Amino acid sequence: MKNKETQGLFAGKNGANYLFPFIIVTSLFALWGFANDITNPMVAAFKNILLISNFESSLVQFAFYGGYCFMAIPAALFIRRFSYKRGILVGLGLYSAGCMLFIPAGNAMAFWAFLIAYFVMTCGLAFLETTSNPYVLSMGPEASATRRLNFAQAFNPIGSLTGMFVAKEFILARLNEATEEERKAMSPDVLAQVQQADLDVISGPYLMLGLVVLCFFVLFFVSRLPRTVSANAGVDSVGRTVKNLLKNRRYVLSVVAQTFYVGVQIMVWTFIIQYAGAELGMKKADAQFYNMIAMVCFVSSRFICTFLLKYLKPGLLLFTLAIGGALLILWTIFGGGNPEAGALLEAKLESAQGFMEKLSVYFQALFQIDGMSGLAALVGVSSCMSLMFPTIYGIALKGMGEEAKLASAGLILAIGGGCIMPPMQGWLIDKAVWFDALSSVRISFVLPLICFVVIACFGRYVSVQNRK
Q1: What pLDDT digit, counting tens, does each position of 143-193 carry?
Q2: Model pLDDT, residue 401
Q3: Which residues have C-beta within 8 Å of that of residue 224, sequence separation ≥ 6?
Q4: pTM for the structure as a whole
Q5: Is 295 left (phi over 0), alpha (psi -120 to 50) or beta?
Q6: What's the chain's average pLDDT?
Q7: pLDDT score recorded for residue 237
Q8: Is the pLDDT of residue 402 over 70?
Q9: What is the mean pLDDT of residues 27-55?
């Protein structure tokens, strides 16, 4: 019975079965999840290695998510003109090329070269995301399309957690532990040697990632994939579709809400390391572990919220989650801090035996060490963000039919929120030192608070509209 159900889920026209194409396309969801979450901690890493400001180091996110902004619409037009397979091949080629550029960037010790590498990488990711989501939807009966996409998206957090683990164990834990002050006190020659060694540590995993992506390129190149979409209408059709989308108030507001959602997600997951370091004196590798705990909360909450959608309308659920996220951010801003918390955590970890006992120490520290409640709230924010992206996505595209193909590109374009807002928060960390009662790191989390307010307003708007 299960076998028949599986066959029906991936059944194409004329008896075709899309199970194998679905499997290999689903693997791409993990690949871009890995890229996103190995990159977030690099903002803090580059700041310490190259002795640059928080604003300058957050340009990593500007370059990374800038690739999505730049390439989302061209990618959508490309797959309209050609095919999903060609779109995937272009995406994998750019992704791999961007990873390979880390080697010359590291050798040159040039931050701008790393930014170019990140930009090229995410031009590829924009192709993959714009292509893979509608491709999965098309691989079988329309009635089971949502089930296929939900299943495929479940592999994204697996890639994210793997990326976080690699960042923690193979990058952050292997960087020179010299502080910014200690590095400034080094002679130019010694500092250059330390910086080169650290940049080599960063470049290594990206090179390996590039080789893995290249293997996927070869796999897709030799695989026979269904051509579920053919060359489409030309420029006039695109123009009419764009005009219709711009007149659709719900869609336009959805893109705005998605922009703020992606912005808050990237800010929370990027600056958790700065918060833990500045407020709790915690090492970057330990702070990154709390990012991993946040991702576990994110994944777990997604299952809970999916269940709640049976009883709550999407707009109401979105409103509730946004209010919850705003309250947790308020506690992050105003909750107590403890500069000795990092040292206390390290002492507990040294006496722990084995991975599971260390894991227990990390969890218990959030509630047992004085001053860690702000970090606990920041970790908990991920539970509120879990279902926001697909919920907004679904609200935006509901009932759009053929226009959804280009409309989805607008929602990928909204990932540009991660391009603009992290540098703004980095600037606040550098400049907001005028308020004695709160540190600049705490003040900077006003931006995620504003994002949640915007999302809550959108959720309220959708709820009211649905009642009319």
Answers
A1: 666 667 777 877 888 899 999 999 999 999 999 988 889 999 999 999 999
A2: 62
A3: none
A4: 0.83
A5: alpha
A6: 86
A7: 66
A8: no
A9: 92
3-class DSSP string for the chain = CHHHHHHHHCECHHHCECHHHHHHHHHHHHHHHHHHHHHCCHHHHHHHHHCCCHHHHCHHHHHHHHHHHHHHHHHHHHHHHCCHHHHHHHHHHHHHHHHHCHHHHHHHCCHHHHHHHHHHHHHHHHHHHHHHHHHHHHCCCHHHHHHHHHHHHCCHHHHHHHHHHHHHHHHHHHCCCCCHHHHHHCCHHHHHHHHHHHHHHHHHHHHHHHHHHHHHHHHHHHCCCCCCCCCCCCHHHHHHHHHHHHHCHHHHHHHHHHHHHHHHHHHHHHHHHHHHHHHHCCCHHHHHHHHHHHHHHHHHHHHHHHHHCCCCCHHHHHHHHHHHHHHHHHHHHHCCCCCCHHHHHHHHHHHCCHHHHHHHHHHHHHHHCCCCHHHHHHHHHHHHHCCHHHHHHHHHHCCCHHHHHHHHHHHHHHHHHHHHHHHHHHHHHHHCCCCCCCCHHHHHCHHHHHHHHHHHHHHHHHHHHHHC
Per-residue confidence at 255, pLDDT binned at 50, 70, 90? very high
User: Are 33 and 160 contacting, i.e. CB atoms less than 8 angstroms apart?
Assistant: yes
Domains and CATH numbers, the chain: 16-222 (1.20.1250.20), 248-468 (1.20.1250.20)
How far apart (Å, rounded) are the C-alpha atoms in residues 376 and 329? 10
Reported as half-sphere exposure (CB side, CA atoms, 13 A), residue 52 has a value of 22
Q: CA–CA separation, 42 vs 172, rounded Å?
A: 9
- Tally Cβ neighbours within 10 Å of residue 314: 19
Report the pLDDT value the prediction gives residue 11, as an integer from 0 to 100: 58
Pairwise pLDDT comparison (287 vs 4), residue with the higher score = 287
pLDDT at residue 4 greater than cutoff 70:
no
Closest CA to 126 of 426, 463, 431, 412: 412
Given pLDDT bands bounded at 50, 70 and 90, which one contains residue 234?
very low
